[in-house]
Structures are given as structure tokens and as C-alpha cells.
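Side project, low priority. Logging it here so it doesn't get lost.
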Amino acid sequence: MGNGFLNNIAEIRNALGLTPELFGQLLGASSRSVIRWEKANTSPERQEQRVLLDKLQEVIKFGLRVYTPEGLHEFLFTRLPEFNEKHPFK
């Protein structure tokens, strides 16, 4: 994972306030894979998943410039009309 802002998958997942199940859905992986990556402190093998992790780090990094951690979580989980009253993590 590129910029070193967050050091591992567990930090990214926790910063987003996601369960292993929801984080796995976001990455197109199982919750078991997420837990395995966290325990081994490794990253996914698929390039698309690594790119997505880097983008999630950027979202967190820039979001925390504007919001507190709690505020960022609230923003990410707010249902918006622009997204048909859905949020990206469900």
C-alpha cells in the first residue's frame, strides 16, 4: 500500500468503521480473507484490490482534514439522494 498513511488493512478498515464482512464486500473478498490479511499483516494479491486500498487510504486521509474520525464515519454512512438513499458500504 502506497503512501504509508495507514500501515495495514486493519487500520484502513477500522478508520472506515467497517466490519470484516462489509470491508470484504467492498474489496470483492470474503471476510475470512480480510481477517487473514489482517493477522498476517499482508495485502491482497489482486492488483484491483491493492489499488482500491490505496484509494480508500486517500479518502480517509483527505476526509480527516475536514472531519473528526466520528464525523467522517457519519458522512460515509449518510444516505444521500444522489445515491438513491444508499451509502457505499451496504
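Brief comment: Residues 24 and 37 are 11 Å apart (CA to CA).
Revisit when time allows.
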